[in-house]
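BUG: 3D viewer hangs when loading the predicted structure for this chain

Environment: internal workstation, default settings.
Expected: structure renders.
Actual: progress bar stalls at 90%.

Input used:
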Amino acid sequence: MSALNVIINVMTRPLPLSILALFLVLVPGSAHSGVRPTETLAARSGPSAPSAEDIAASAESAPTAGRKNKIQVKVVSIMTRDENGRAIGFPGAIFYDRRAHETYVVVGADGGKVVVYGANDFPEVALGRGRGAAAPRALFVGRDNLIYVCQGRTATEPARITVFNQAFFPVKEFPLVGMPKTKNFVPTSIAVNRAGLIYVAGLNSRGVLVLDKNGKFSHWLKPMGMVFNQSAPTAVGKAAV
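Structure tokens produced before the viewer hung:
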């Protein structure tokens, strides 16, 4: 099971006292509100955890023919509390800002909000309904330092992308209406590239919605087909011959 699958499995457990575990590769940190396990996966193999140099050397010397190199993964923090000191309720998405060393966690508790953890894993602040994040589902911090939050539809507002500055004030909003094939679209993940193009994936769609930097519809990225059987391409090739 990959690290990403582990994160998703942990985040989607429907428990009142859900625990969010961050699985990062060789990222050091200190413990405040987060809990640092004294025993990690790497430490179990010997009296001391391998250094970055040891792992790099091992990766370079390991044979690669016929199999992929294994990624060294260890638990560096377990976050259990929000900005009010209460247990995290139903975490649904994570974003880590490498430049600011901040972790953004989207949770379903309190009507939906985004809890921001500092470099020491301490919950510093939350972005919620009072600032316009009424139904957050995922977010992305762009190179422009703006926070792009994709939100689901509510009783009064459509599905939309809300853009916040670093002070958590909304500066832009892109309603996902009047665009091709967005009638039942529910955004659940988002990314922004260097050119400012916004990529949004979600429910009720097999593709990725692409918006320009002004939030205008650009195009859909759609798969041309689906392969359910690995032998299918070979069979099709033989049939064509």
